[in-house]
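**Discrete fold encoding**
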Amino acid sequence: MTHKFIADVHLGKLAKLLRLLGFDVAYRNKYTNSEILQIAREQNRVVLSRNVSFEKQTNIQCLVVTSEDAFRQLKQVVNQFHLKEQFHPFTRCIVCNEMLEPVKKENILPSLEKNTAQYFNEFWQCNHCKRIYWKGSHYESMLKTIGHILN
């Protein structure tokens, strides 16, 4: 079963980390509680919140996230929903949640910084927000983060 989530205003970092792992996470820091509930019901999403009042709602699945630390939050979600076997890292835009597509370097060359263009050849782009991703120095640290979550 693939889980889809919606995160409340307090969980922006968690939303990005879950997206990094390939999970579909609806998040905007301007969602009202009623919008979160409506989206959760309409799109069959699990509500992730620090607000215990969501637990009282019917017809939705909710997890009250207990830690203030984003990595502990992530571990809680991963363990609660048994997600370790469902990771698809670097497949989703961490900014807007859309899927990433491989893109040819020559198609995005004008958008790249000089050193990025010089040292990297493999790129992905979000077709929605046009953000470009590559396996730069941040990639290794993200892999370590994923490793910590899996252990």
The chain has a mean pLDDT of 92.
